[in-house]
Amino acid sequence: MSELSGLFVVKPESVTATKGKDITFVSKVDSSALTRKPVMKWVKGKWLDLSSKAGKHLKFKESYDRNTKIYTYEMSIIKVVDGDAGGYRCEVTAKDKCDSCTFEVSVQAAQEDQQDNILEAFKRS
Question: 72, 87, 92, 119: which is closest to 15 by C-alpha?
């Protein structure tokens, strides 16, 4: 049985994303007390493992700083759509330790500055 521990140095925060824009979530894990590399799992809702969804819409990145023994994990949602809204969780596990944190994504419509004036752009002078 894994014990819950404070492995996160930085946790992803809940955001309101603009439709069509990209957003990135960052989590940092302190591995100085770990015997092996931690495994990060990004989950949407209760059980949807996002690693299987990696591709054009979802990108994952990880890096390691030898000096501080901190792993940095990133999840980017490319061109946010309404379906990306909801609760997310990131879980980190390493042999006998685990930690998780939750965050929310809400999606707002893109700001249309000149929607009223769209036809003006096509008028001939």
Answer: 87
